[in-house]
Write a structure and sequence with these properties.
single chain, little secondary structure, 3 strands
Amino acid sequence: MSRSLKKGPFVDVPLLEKIEGMNRGGDKKVIKTWSRRSTVIPEMVGHTIAVHNGKKFIPVYVTENMVGHKLGEFALTRTFKGHSADKKVAAPSGTPAPAAAPAAPAAGKK
C-alpha cells in the first residue's frame, strides 16, 4: 500500500539530515543506513548510500531513475544459489529414430 500523497515521501530524519549536510558541504562520502523503508528523494541523487540487508551493508549509488523507490529495493536480502540439479538419469531411448520417408517419384518424367 502506498503512502498518502498529502503526507509526502517518508525519509528517516537522521538520514535526511546527513544528506542535506553533505549537499551543503559538497561531500561525497558513503552513508551507512539501516533505513530500508526510506524513499529515495531527488536530494539523494549522486550519493552512495550503504543499505543494510540484514547481514552486511550494500553500497547503492543513487541515480535519477531510483527516485520514488524505497532504499530496500536495491539491497537484496536473499541470495539465489540456483535450483537443485535434476537427479533423474535420462532414460535411454529404446525406440529407434523414425525412418525417412521414401522420395516421391518426379512427376512428368517418362
